[in-house]
Predict the 3D structure of the following.
Amino acid sequence: MKLNLDQAVINRCRQAAGHIAGDVDQFIRQRTTVSLERAVLRLMGINDAMDDVPVANLFVETIQAGQGLGRGAAYWLANGCYQLKLTADEVAQRVVSGQLDLFQLPQADRATLNPTLEKLMQPTIEKIKDQHRFRKDKLSNLGMGPEPLLYVIVATGDIYQDVDQAVAAVAQGADIVAVIRTTGQSLLDYVPHGSTREGFGGTYATQENFRIMREALDEAGDKAGRYVMLVNYSSGLCMPEIAVLGALERLDMMLNDALYGILFRDINMQRTLIDQHFSRQIIGFAGAIINTGEDNYLTTADAVEEAHTVTASQFINEQLALLAGLEDRQIGLGHAFEIDPSMTDGLLLEIAQAQMARQLFPRAPLKYMPPTKHMTGDIFQGHLQNGLFNLTSVLTGQGVHLLGMVTEAIHTPYVQDRLLALQNARYVMNNARNLGEELSIRDDGKISARARDVLEKAAQMLETVAEIGLFAALERGMFADIERSRDGGKGLDGVVMKDVDYCNPFQELLTQQAGSSGGGNDEK
Amino acid sequence: MMRSNFVKAYGDALNDGAVQLSFTLPLSPGGMAKEAARHLAEKMGLDQPEVVHMVEAGTGFSFFIVYGFCRHQVDTSQLQATEVEIQEMSFNEINQYIQERIGRRLNVVAACTGTDAHTVGIDAIMNMKGYKGEYGLERYSWINAWNMGSQVPNTRLVAEAKKTQADALLVSQVVTQRDVHISNLSQLTELLEAEGMRQNVLLIVGGPRISHQLALELGYDAGFGPGTTPRQVASYIAREIYRRQQG
């Protein structure tokens, strides 16, 4: 099954998106943020907490107060180690307890510090590489289920209950488990510490919680004979730090989308686009996949009228991801099945959108989201809506399939909601496994016409955004009908200009690597 | 005294009491699990409970579908249905109503408060584009509408209400895990009381698990459940404010 799309229009989209991403890249390269610097510290092994406050936070606050952040946290930590012949932990402890004023030390130049920096980086780099290798081996030994991969969420608030529910879901066929974060975590400017048993609408993302769930899923996966992926959120105000924790604990997918944070969490656009770039570099290096959040636009904007904004955003996200060194197979662009179920031929439009996304991004593990906006308390109707969603997904060959829950509009899923969702998906996808190969789409029909229309509108929108820039487009409310200003939102005070002698050996390494692999642009 | 009017659940004959239910037990499927499910249904008041489906729902869990005949009946003459009474008007009628009867634009401030980040509900009521083909409050020419978005602390909402001289506050609560919405909603009424503003605003709450009854219990003026349209909310606000003006 294939749509006959106009390659010239696709080229226009990519060209405009490339231009938009390039502009953003120019902007973010000159700046760093408190969260980015905390991530650097975590990469250098500063992962402890003092009275539940992460040492990385306290350290960065101290440097920021002394106007030293523009030089990079890595510089100050390494200089401390070098001058005092102490370990990174010892320096950090002394700084945050007030025993040591880093600004009073002699300041070595970069070349002198390079061996120290190297030594501080090495253990984490090795650990991330080990995790990457471990995943590769597991995947080649066990493999995964057939695509679309079945993705479920757990959200009990208690990591140990989450484990029970996740293990149950794996036994029923889940390929991917996402632990939903507690409501409000995206707006916390620090990452909580340790294992947690209290949360609302989800469970805190902490390194320890990641580790607990990873261990449980590895075990469940071995039992089920396939590798089970773990997902969490590298988003919000701690985006890059969570990317680091995810890399250390072998998370396989990270929801990672600055645009989502800007629009739906009112996070400052400068802050989160800078954060996003570094997070994506880390996620790329860890061999994990990003999931982007375009699907959410359709929860506020109309899915029929605004479909092109999703497509346009996918192109932008693709280009930003490529600039951060991700390969196509790591770019899980999002979209959703959100058209009003009462619409005549609504399914045709859904098929058009899903098939078009498949063809525009042939190697991307597209993340397809279930109906949410038009789900009601009528769980029987909802079960059918999910059935049509499952059919569209298997028909158009989506990569990552988020299972729709019949109780979407009522509560976070019960164990049986997940069971019903998995049964529904297994039934439909098995029953129609190769339907897509048997059908062709008529060139003069409604599906083709719809795809052409959406693609053309996306091209026009991207060209407008390229002209005015992404920041201005967001200020005009061009995505999701939500307007955000470039100096508004949360977290702007955490953005600083880099000094000329800014030091971030990780970013240097990752940028270099991305350059040498040549990205993975897929233009054909 | 009203005449009693008893009703029972209806399957295919009056008063047969037929009901269906589904649930999970933390037991592996088997004879014992089935028996446990049947007994549980019996304790719920079902006669002749029949477990028509049992399946493993992960290790150590079974999911059941059960049919039975519920013994219980209710007397509707003894019940009070609490729903917001709304005389619905059209988009144009509402604007006209405000213009003619109240004579000034109404100020409406909306927010998802507390830790709640789910703006689907409040957006459906507020957004210019609206919901199910109905314009949201932002589109009404005789309403000044502010949508403060998600995770708004109650204190900020109160401050905004003061600043805008709000006639009505719309609070949305979607995530209600462990009843976090109850304490959050109560806190808002307390704050408004403390500021001496409670009597000056129409306080409205909406969400999938919100009923008018619950809203009243929490000291709100009205509660709207799922499926509420912007027009219903706007009609209610316009009429209620006019009614209060009349004293």
User: Anything to note?
Assistant: Chain B touches chain A through 32 residues (CB under 8 Å).
